[in-house]
């Protein structure tokens, strides 16, 4: 049986956040997946600033963001 259970690491031990149906002393296999940290407001601001500083589309460029849908989907019928 495989079951995913959330846990918190405290004082050298994992504390399960919900009950499990295990016998005392039963051996289990544990995989640990740490979720990525949430972006802070500052990092989001930095990302948006970098995006806004990107060069605008050059009308002489034959491949621009303005042509995105045409490149992906072709000309509309």
Top keywords for this entry?
23% helix, 10% strand, single chain
Description:
This protein is of the alpha+beta class. Helices cover 23% and strands 10% of the residues. The chain is built from two helices and two strands. The chain has helices at 41-52, 68-73, and strands spanning 7-10, 13-16. Strands 1-2 form a two-stranded antiparallel sheet. β1 and β2 form a beta hairpin. The model has no long low-confidence stretch (mean pLDDT 84).
Give the topology.
Elements: E1 7-10, E2 13-16, H1 41-52, H2 68-73
Antiparallel strand pairs: 1-2
Low-confidence stretches: none
Measured between the Cα atoms of the first and last residue, the distance is 53 Å
State the major sheet. 2 strands, antiparallel
Oligomer: single chain
Secondary-structure element pattern, one letter each: EEHH
Helix/strand class:
alpha+beta
Count up the helices: 2
What is the CA-atom radius of gyration, in angstroms?
A: 25 Å
Spatial arrangement of strands, main beta sheet: 1-2
């Amino acid at each position: 049986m495989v079951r995913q259970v959330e846990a918190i690491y405290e004082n050298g031990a994992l504390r399960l956040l919900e009950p499990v149906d295990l016998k005392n002393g039963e051996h289990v296999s544990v995989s640990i997946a740490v979720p990525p940290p949430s972006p802070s407001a500052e990092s989001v601001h930095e990302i948006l600033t970098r995006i806004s500083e990107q060069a605008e589309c050059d009308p002489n460029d034959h491949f621009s963001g303005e042509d995105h849908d045409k490149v992906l989907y072709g000309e509309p019928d």
